[in-house]
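## tool: complex_structure
## caller: assistant
## args:
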Amino acid sequence: MTTTVTEFEVHDIRFPTSEQFDGSDAMNPDPDYSAAYVVIRTGDGAEGHGFCFTIGRGNDIAAAAIEALRPHVVGRPAPTTPTALAALHTELTHDSQLRWLGPEKGVIHMAAGAVVNAAWDLAARGAGLPVWEYLAAMTPEELVSLVDFRYLTDALTREEALALLRAAEPGRAERAERLRAQGYPAYTTSPGWLGYSDEKLVRLAKEAVADGFGQIKLKVGGDIDDDIRRMRLARAAVGPSVRIAVDANQRWEVDDAVRWMTALAPYQPYWIEEPTSPDDILGHAAVRAGQPVKVATGEHAANRVVFKQLLQAEAVDFVQIDAARVSGVNENLAILLLAAKYGVPVCPHAGGVGLCELVQHLAMFDYVAVSGSWDGRVIEYVDHLHEHFTDPAVIVSGRYAAPRAPGFSARMLPESIAAHRYPEGPVWRARRTAQEVTP
Amino acid sequence: MTTTVTEFEVHDIRFPTSEQFDGSDAMNPDPDYSAAYVVIRTGDGAEGHGFCFTIGRGNDIAAAAIEALRPHVVGRPAPTTPTALAALHTELTHDSQLRWLGPEKGVIHMAAGAVVNAAWDLAARGAGLPVWEYLAAMTPEELVSLVDFRYLTDALTREEALALLRAAEPGRAERAERLRAQGYPAYTTSPGWLGYSDEKLVRLAKEAVADGFGQIKLKVGGDIDDDIRRMRLARAAVGPSVRIAVDANQRWEVDDAVRWMTALAPYQPYWIEEPTSPDDILGHAAVRAGQPVKVATGEHAANRVVFKQLLQAEAVDFVQIDAARVSGVNENLAILLLAAKYGVPVCPHAGGVGLCELVQHLAMFDYVAVSGSWDGRVIEYVDHLHEHFTDPAVIVSGRYAAPRAPGFSARMLPESIAAHRYPEGPVWRARRTAQEVTP
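## result:
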């Protein structure tokens, strides 16, 4: 029996993270980590939760975009099969009027991702499986049916994708078992926010190594002399064998990136992340060719067409998928397949609020059923805001423990939702009152 | 004395164009041409009008995005100088939290464009000049100060832009005079919508030639045999010397585009527009290399970084700016300068609602002060919805007459705004009543 979606709740949820300088980088000095959050609910009480991640102002616009997708969901059968999940993704990304707002980029595309991911949460819970296992239990034919190959076929056809997935079928069970036993490699960005003092950077870098992380990341791009000093301090703190990635958050021109990374190269940065505009495929290729450090990008890449070109142009050494910027699981599956075709490792972006929870499923599925490898792969981890989730990401000795609870791990606690609703939640009411008292 | 912006009105305005199949193409079968419309007003009663163009659903999201920009405008001095117009553009596109929603793409970027264009309307009216003349009266130094060169400097530096503008200074007055006397070349898309019958296509194509147009455009991409038949009919109707451009509206894979255009080539299409994804720079380059017809794109290109790469990759023969998708006059000035640097002609996209009115100013300014040429240049014209504007675009013998009224020509009549507000305007109320009566 198919159940019908009867409710579609949208919440504007914001956390006042800017007060602590958590998450500060060269382009984002004062983020308030936020979620435009959607709950879809069926007549028999099943739920799926999903969200867009934003950094404060504009979260209401993302919520309005999710709201615009309501007619594609409510009153329809709950999407609980690969066929239905494929149809929902197609319908949400091909609404001929809404598509104009992107196309397939920006707020409307992120909103489609929120609803698609909510549907995956619902479907996986219905199957009693975490999303990574739910995906890994599908046949290659079911998996390719989930992908929109439009604009990809000059780089990856359905048949090539099918061949890749079939080639990775042997060993799925063993790799899943290894994941459950060992977890997936992680790195931590917590030491390296640009707003932190040198002392805090050194202390947190040492703590990260003590906690078992084999890789940390520093934000760079504010001032070259500061960055050289911070990189030198970090290298001294963690020793020669721990990887230090650096992240410019789109701060540079191509020439700046080449100059800056040439200056940082003696301290052996593992990769330079987002050296320039996320739209600049040819710029990333020029940065990669112009200096010795490997290039990573993707958290702001708008869609699969941008990822396709980053791979075609040999512009990146690492593909950094984000769980909540593109149109959800379906488009990320396309990106995982593209990366596998080009032999480029996927190292997901995470952090924010709920991004670690979501993206671990995609990396683990990639390991089990697409790339079949975790060599050179690592998922970002930031130790923020996990306490607001019913099934938070768990790090053990620098590795993500494989989720065992059914669903997508990104359901917020009802009391966290209630407290952080913007502008009416008590967390925000209290701040306004404090501002009025202390002018 | 500087006046202050005191009001910021936002309207969701929609026209029920889908009822006539006007504007139908391979990707947009049923557009309701819409404007998320903003009016900024100063304390002394001066006004600036601007808008995002959308095709129906989602216009409310664009209106919400404009609303989010209110704090950057209200209570501030009215931006009526090049310095102030540059500062406003920077502030709107660099809001560190709102930027996350793009960055610089999709709804939030279109909203910035609406507000920026409203400010230009206000400033040009204050100067008593149409926007094209207001721009053409600025010095090269003032013009480059309006441009955000971030992410452009590997292709175009401030100094190169300044040199281009200085080189075009001689003859500005003569070209402006020629524009006023002769108008700017136009082409018409009105005959070629995909939903029109063969008979209507042939009749409208002949009328276009009789009206003095030297170029028409057909929508293609639905069915190859239909397109061959329609192209043959159109060619027979207009004769060998009238240009026929074709427009696939993003419908194809790279291979489809090559196959389809090879089949249409015997009928001498002038260009193929939007053959594939607007994000696919390398795909456009492959289409250009793979078949004999020239390639045009740009109406959905997200920002200057995409245009930069289209030019760097030699992916286009024509740059099709749109007045209302990027962040307004300032970013379009960057794109005009990029096109001039690479020697590629700019042939603006227009149509929709109000786009002809806006973009004519940019093409005319390009002719007077940037490229200095109208050879091979032509502005799209679609004969829809002009009756709703106070200063509608005027076509005389297949050419846009140079606007003489101060401002940006895109102010809607108050009665048109009132009638078409969604969902409460009488045009929409009447439709809902009709649907209730005829179920």
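## assistant note: Chain B touches chain A through 59 residues (CB under 8 Å). Residues 319 and 346 of chain B are 5 Å apart (CA to CA). Handing back to user.
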